[in-house]
Specification:
- The complex is a heterotetramer of chains A (667), B (341), C (149) and D (266).
- In chain A, 28% of the residues lie in helices and 25% in strands.
- Chain A has 667 residues and is α/β, with parallel strands linked by helices.
- In chain A, helix 6 packs parallel to helix 15 and helix 12 runs parallel beside helix 13.
- Chain A is globular and about 95 Å long.
- Chain A starts with a strand and ends with a helix.
- Chain D folds into two domains: 119 residues; 112 residues, no CATH class.
- In chain D, 38% of the residues lie in helices and 10% in strands.
- Classes of the chains: A alpha/beta (667), B alpha+beta (341), C alpha/beta (149), D alpha/beta (266).
- Chains in contact: A-B, A-C, A-D, B-C, B-D, C-D.
- Chains A and C meet through helix 3, helix 4, helix 5, helix 17 and helix 18 of A and helix 1, strand 2, helix 2 and helix 3 of C.
Chain lengths: 667, 341, 149, 266
């Protein structure tokens, strides 16, 4: 027989102003199984909690209903109080008399009646509560970081520096990401490579970091603390142990006209190549799609010139499996290519380029060694136009959001141009200048005021060529939409930052959610910006939304702290509000019939197949089993199961059924 | 009492119906819906189905309803109070149009409800029922009453048995019981005196197809036979046979609580269901359909004769007609008789 | 005769609508007191059989509410629920269960005012429809002893 | 069906299968299931237009399954059921061989269930004219009329569960009605309980029912319960597009699309 205690809180006058708390307590006292019932001014106060604790001890309560505020407010408080008095915390339920009753209704009998009903529902429910114990899950203290851009680098270093192992995978031949392509960085104009390269080297040399470049995530199984990741190490066609990175092969490779990805197509590379001089690791890979040997079956020049015999034409992709406890996803972003903008004539006009291409032109290590020369004829442009919001903030283009970084880098580009091309004229077409950030606004003002960049508020409708000039035709909205035409030598489009191609598939592999633009979704936009909805998987950098460097780094460090926090424990404890598939005595074993429709219904891939074997080890039944580490307790499977074989602790069939019964009947 | 024979004109049946209605009698008669007939509270003579060999459902509902509230209970400060069925509430009912096999089935059902425990509600319900039997002039391949001791003009169980004397003829009414006589008293002029005899020639011809005595003796040694498995492989384990059967008496009792009030309800159950014998532990002594099929036959042809001295089968053939997979009890009984142990 | 006070049961998810109703409270927005909330972890957990049970036991109306699409705390519980509701509602309609009496809504944790509005409009419309007598007539055993037929 | 008999004998003789499930002449004008384990019994196999029982109900039956590998004479509805069962892991190529009977009554043997699926997908599931008419008639009724229709139709149901037993998809060893903590569906036959049972059954069959009418054919009281599942089939098609049982197992009700359309959620 249950011995339930009911504790009705006045919450000062918050509840008692409209609810007759004494009557609620008195009525609750008449229900079967209620051994103790009382009302009190502040249940959450120390004396209030003591009333509960004493009643548990003195009356030997088997269940507690606290009728006060929302359980979202004080459930942990009262559960803890119960636990301190020796009652399993999950034997405590709360009736929400404040937010759901006293605050929203007038003082009258109906309001008190409702309060009584709310208490009765929980009294009847708690009779079906079971003592539950927190779930312990072991933790593998190795992190997987996916993506070797600045976010991935920072996260890896931060985690590694807490003493934990990190596996960093990067799909390109070198780490560094977009930051390595940048010339200078706003708002300080320090050289991007100069601040990044030491970090890259640190990654390569860190004893706790294992770096795999040219590698991608193949599949992911498991759950927080216990992931199993399969990593595809794409064949580099060289033996990295033997290769010294001498560069003979890249010098001698006869295929020299491949557009360099690192230089955004503005420079060329060979088929066996190191993407850029500071690459980490500084060892080449063979681009099989362009290598003569792989296309025509002969060449092997690199093999001939290699002094250490490191070339391996027959090398195959390797799949390796690693066990990790946490994952940081730092796969970054990409920018829309201008072929997205037919009105700006990309493809037709070589001198309409992206911001990222401009970075390469402005970079001392770039194809023009830092001189601003236009791609078509190598001339120094005398007039240059920068277009902000190329695609961004344009619902018609399907990109309603702001790409965030463009305002700042345009200011930087214009400034760099003015510094490098004396007497040159630069124009910026913008919608708004968004320069929120430390020293950001000052930076933009410097571009306008000190460096004489012409800012024109308005949009450009089209770009066309006339007499060897690019005519940029737009309107100045500050001058009553007066038409503006600029004869430019070169145009730079600040194209929208978008999710990487394949972001969706990657998210699906990891079972994390993503937004309509395929950026990965954080668990909470404000309070959980680096968490995903999948426990143990964290986000850093621009894979979540366009981010600048300081933000990416901050996010990466945030994610690293989450990982370190996770790894500070040997076991994880989780709320036991999870689904369970019933098990019965033989010969039934479970009422589950193994249709496994729950498997597709589960948002967390938490349902597995379990073989039930007899004494001879023969499989006699295949039934569903919920992995307690993965289950988050949504209960979708519960409502789905035809045989009612799955139940969810804390919200069981009996509990929910009883709540409905209790609500609508007299007790 | 001696059976009194009267003549009821063909068109007098309707008059009889109306007189009974005027005397506030509740009349349960065959009613057809979706091509299937069952006994329903009937207000007009025209609504009564005719020409059936056998109704889809038996008439046992009248004394052993499929769902029957046994008592109401409620909790209060003073404790639990229980209110049983008021037996005075049970209405007087005339059961109209029952075939002789069904009428005799009432006796078999009663033997169960009067065995070790006298089921008061059942006994009271039955005491209020006057049975109008109608002899069979037709039969079909599923009928076998003659093989289990009945016949198409059997008077057992009826209070009045009507026999149609030829296609367009009148009815011979055999007044079998005091209850029957009480009905005649209400409509004296409709029950004309007659000296007609030899109703047999108007009855369906139904040769005996097996000996139920032989089956009983055979079953004593037949428990372990493989025949049960052979026969029941296509059985799907539904309860259709039991629910249409005039003598199947298995029931379940459920307490349905709604807060502090509730009811105890009795409802039909079937030994064909796989969960019928499941123990609380999960163990199921009849865990295959063959065991359940065996139980059905053994119960009717071995256990009932042994304990109650009656057979639990009237040969009405309903179960065979109702079975979705053609489990034909007659066919299976004959093969039991033929198979060597 | 006193005005008919509908009994309405609300089946809501913990993360959005329950929290939204909390916000209604903290915002002190007043609404009709006919609704009783039953808290579920997610709309995906809400078994349609419970909705039928609510009508069985005398509810005149039902509210089912959870997170907006894409907002589900569990990513997709509400998507599963939505599909289930589409089919269940259509089956109710087909069997003559009054679908006007089952209100489905999305109320986020930020939509305290919307919750109050949902409750008020539901109470008003059920008040107009009157008690669900059609259902109640078949829901309980008849008071007087009758045999099936 | 000579081909079937011949093939059944071959399969049994070569021990490729242990039992062939087909039809035989029953009593009266009925046909019924036959389980051929001995070659000499294969001669009893028949096939004609009366053979409408959905034999797929047997492939999940314990006693039948325990015999070993089964071959089944399968008409189109039976094949559809088998594909659905396979997608729910109840049968597979190791325990079942399908001897298909085409709508033209030709025997067609499949090497595996993938081939069965391909064959089945050539045909759309179509509601027959008589039932379509009935659905239309019901659609035109008011909600209150439909309520009365169903309460009246289902009141006679005495819960013998022949519908469940005959349905290949109702293979659960513990049906929700057998669940008593809590008692979701009242055990006794009551007007409301009957309605709840049939509503629940229709929900459980949504996206799984292949419209074979086995439930209706099995009902000893001929209650048109198949209208419920038919309506679900029509609605599912309307809301989520055409569907066919598929080995992929992307069951209609256990999956979703983020852009599923509805017009009733506020």
């Amino acid at each position: 027989m249950s011995k339930i205690g009911v504790f009705v809180c006045h919450c000062g006058e918050n509840i008692s102003a409209t609810v007759d708390c004494a009557k609620v307590a008195e009525t609750a006292g008449t229900y079967d199984g209620v051994a103790f019932s009382v009302d009190y001014k502040y249940m959450c106060s120390d004396p209030g909690q003591n009333i509960i604790k004493n009643a548990i001890k003195e009356k030997g309560l088997t269940g507690v209903v606290v009728a006060s505020c929302s359980p979202r407010m004080h459930e942990p408080t009262f559960r803890k109080a119960c636990a301190e008095a020796g009652l399993n915390p999950f034997m405590c339920e709360m009736a929400n008399l404040r937010e759901h009753c006293s605050w929203v209704h007038e003082k009258n009998e109906a309001t008190t009646e409702k309060a009584i009903d709310l208490v009765r529902i929980l009294v009847e429910k708690v009779k079906y509560n079971h003592s539950l114990n927190e779930i312990k899950v072991p933790v593998t203290k190795t992190a997987l970081v996916i993506g070797g851009g600045i976010a991935g680098i920072q996260a890896s270093l931060d985690i590694a520096n807490t003493g934990h192992k990190v596996i960093l995978i990067e799909r390109d031949p070198s780490i560094g990401g977009h930051m390595s392509q940048l010339s200078e960085t706003f708002p300080t104009l320090d050289c991007s490579q100069c601040i990044l390269t030491p970090r890259m080297v640190e990654v390569a040399q860190h004893p706790n970091i294992t770096l795999y470049t040219y590698a991608e995530l193949e599949s992911l199984e498991g759950f927080i603390g216990n992931f199993k990741a399969k990593i595809r190490r794409k064949s580099k066609s060289i033996d990295e142990k033997l290769c010294t990175g001498c560069g003979q092969c890249t010098t001698k490779c006869p295929v020299k006209k491949i557009p360099s990805e690192f230089n955004e197509g503005l420079g060329k590379r060979t088929a066996i190549y190191v993407p850029f001089p500071q690459a980490v690791p500084n060892k080449p890979v063979i681009d099989r799609g362009n290598c003569t040997y792989y296309i025509k079956g002969k060449c092997k020049v690199c093999e001939i010139v290699c002094p250490t015999g490191a070339i391996r034409f027959d090398q195959e992709d390797q799949i390796m499996e690693v066990e990790v406890g946490a994952i940081v996803v730092a796969t970054g972003f990409t920018v829309k290519q201008p072929d997205f903008f037919p009105e700006y004539g990309y493809g037709k006009y070589a001198d309409v380029i992206t911001g990222l291409q401009f970075e390469r032109l402005a970079s001392a290590s770039g194809p023009t060694l830092g001189e601003i020369r236009r791609p078509s004829d190598g001339k120094i442009p005398e007039k240059i136009v920068f277009l902000a919001c190329a695609g961004s903030r344009d619902p018609a283009k399907g990109i309603p959001y702001c790409s965030k970084i463009c305002c700042m880098y345009i200011a930087k580009h214009a400034m760099l141009y003015q510094h490098k091309v004396h007497g040159g004229k630069s124009y910026v077409f913008y919608m708004d200048i968004r320069a929120g950030g430390k020293q950001y606004e000052e930076f933009v003002r410097r571009a306008i005021e000190d460096d004489g960049v012409n800012y024109i508020r308005g949009r450009v409708s089209k770009i066309y060529e006339k007499n060897g000039k690019l005519i940029v035709s737009g309107a100045d909205t500050l001058l009553n939409a007066m038409p503006v035409e600029i004869e430019a030598d070169m145009v730079v489009l600040a194209t929208a930052g978008v999710a990487n191609e394949g972001a969706e598939e990657l998210a699906q592999k990891m079972h994390i959610s993503y937004d309509p633009y395929k950026f990965f979704a954080e668990a909470h936009p404000k309070l959980k910006p680096v968490e995903t909805n999948t426990a143990g998987i964290f986000l850093a950098g621009a894979c979540q939304a366009p981010r600048d460097i300081p933000e990416s780094v901050a996010m990466a460090s945030g994610a690293a702290v989450k990982v370190a926090g996770l790894f500070s424990q040997d076991e994880l404890t989780r709320e036991p509000i999870i689904a369970v598939v019933n098990r019965q005595a033989p010969p039934v074993y479970s009422s589950c019939v193994g249709c496994f429709l729950c498997v597709s219904a589960c948002p967390y891939q938490a349902i597995e197949k379990e073989e039930i074997k007899n004494r001879n080890g023969e499989v006699i039944k295949l039934v569903a089993k919920v992995n307690p580490g993965l289950c988050q307790g949504c209960g979708t499977c519960v409502a789905f199961c035809r045989t009612k074989s799955i139940d969810i602790q804390g919200y069981t069939h009996e509990q929910m059924y009883t709540e409905v019964m209790a609500l609508l009947n007299e007790y | 009492m001696n059976i009194d024979k009267r003549l009821v004109r063909k068109d007098s049946l309707e008059k009889l119906f109306d007189i009974l209605k005027r005397n506030s009698k509740t009349i349960y008669a065959p009613f057809t819906k979706n091509g299937k007939s069952t006994f329903r509270d009937t207000e007009s003579f025209g609504a009564i189905s005719t020409g059936y060999i056998q109704t889809t459902e038996s008439a046992k509902d009248i004394a052993f309803p499929r769902t029957e509230k046994l008592l109401d209970f409620s909790k209060s400060k003073e404790g639990m109070s229980v209110k049983g069925t008021d037996l005075n509430d049970i209405p007087d009912v005339i059961l109209w149009g029952v075939r002789p096999c069904d009428a005799s089935g009432i006796g078999e059902l009663s033997s169960i409800f009067n065995w070790d425990y006298k089921d008061e509600i059942y006994i009271n319900r039955l005491s209020k029922v006057t049975v109008f039997g109608f002899s069979c002039s037709k039969s079909d391949e599923y009928c076998f009453c003659t093989s289990v001791g009945g016949n198409p003009g059997n008077t057992a169980g009826s209070d009045i048995l009507f026999t149609l004397l030829g296609e367009e003829g009148d009815y011979l009414a055999e007044i079998i019981t005091e209850k029957g006589l009480a009905v005649v008293d209400l409509a004296q002029n409709l029950f004309e005196k007659t000296d007609i005899s030899g109703k047999e020639k108007f009855l369906a011809e139904l040769p005996v197809k097996f000996s139920h005595e032989d089956i009983r003796l055979k079953l004593d040694k037949f428990f372990e036979s493989k025949e049960w498995i052979e026969q029941s492989l296509r059985c799907l384990g539904c309860g259709a046979c039991a629910y249409v059967c005039p003598t199947c008496a298995c029931f379940d009792i459920q307490d349905e609580a709604h807060g502090k009030k509730g009811s105890r309800v009795r409802c039909w159950d079937s030994c064909g269901f796989s969960h019928f014998t499941v123990h609380t532990s999960g163990y199921n002594p009849r865990n295959v359909q063959s065991a359940r099929w065996r139980q059905r036959i053994m119960h009717k042809f071995s256990y009932m004769p042994e304990r109650l001295s009656v057979y639990g089968c009237t040969g009405c053939g309903r179960c065979s007609r109702a079975c979705p997979v053609d489990m034909n009890i007659l066919e299976h009984l004959i093969s039991i008789q033929e198979v060597t142990v | 005769m006193a005005e008919f006070e509908p009994k309405i049961v609300a089946f809501v998810c913990n993360w959005c609508t329950y929290a939204g109703a909390d916000l209604t409270g903290t915002s002190r927005i007043k609404y009709a007191s006919n609704v009783r909330i039953i808290r579920f972890p997610c709309t995906g957990r809400i078994d349609y059989m419970l909705l039928l049970k609510a009508f069985d036991e005398g509810a005149d109306g039902i509210i089912v509410s959870g997170c907006h699409p894409n907002d589900c705390h569990y990513t997709s519980g509400n998507f599963h629920a939505r599909r289930r509701w589409i089919m269940f509602r259509s089956l109710c309609d087909f069997t003559g269960i009054d679908t006007e009496r089952i209100k489905f809504s999305w109320v986020s944790a930020a939509e305290g005012a919307k919750w109050a509005e949902i409750v008020n409009t539901t109470v008003a419309s059920i008040r107009e429809l009157g008690p669900y007598t059609d259902y109640k007539k078949v829901a309980k055993y008849p008071e007087k002893e009758v045999i099936h037929g | 069906m000579v081909d079937l008999i011949k093939r059944a004998k071959e399969l049994l003789e070569s021990s490729a299968v242990k039992v062939v499930i087909g039809y035989e002449q029953g009593t009266g004008n009925k046909t019924r299931a036959l389980f051929v384990e001995k070659t000499e019994d294969a001669d009893k196999l028949i096939f004609d237009s009366r053979c409408i029982q959905n034999l797929a109900a047997y492939v999940t039956k314990k006693e039948v399954k325990e015999k070993g590998k089964m071959a089944i004479a399968a008409t189109l509805p039976v094949m559809r059921s088998i594909i659905q069962l396979a997608s729910e892991f109840q049968v597979n190529d190791n325990n079942l061989l399908v001897l298909g009977i085409t709508p033209e009554s030709n025997l067609i043997e499949f090497a595996n269930l993938v081939e069965v699926e391909t064959f089945v997908h050539q045909y759309q599931i179509e509601i027959d004219a008589r039932n379509k008419e009935m659905l239309d008639k019901l659609a035109k009724m008011t909600s209150a009329e439909r309520w009365k229709f169903w309460v009246d139709e289902l009141a006679p149901c005495f819960k013998c569960y022949a519908c469940r037993a005959a349905c290949p998809m109702c293979y659960c060893s513990r049906c929700t009605v057998d669940f008593n903590q809590p008692q979701w569906i009242p055990v006794p036959s009551t007007e409301l309980g009957n309605l709840e049972w049939h509503i629940m059954r229709a929900m459980h069959l949504t996206g799984r029912c292949i419209d074979c009418d086995a439930c209706y054919n099995a009902c000893p009281l001929s209650i048109p319960i198949n209208l419920l599942t038919k309506r679900m089939l029509v609605d599912a098609k309307e809301h989520f597009g055409n569907y066919q049982p598929s080995l992929k197992g992307d069951n209609l009700m256990s999956t979703y699309k983020p852009d599923d359309k509805e017009n009733f959620i506020q």
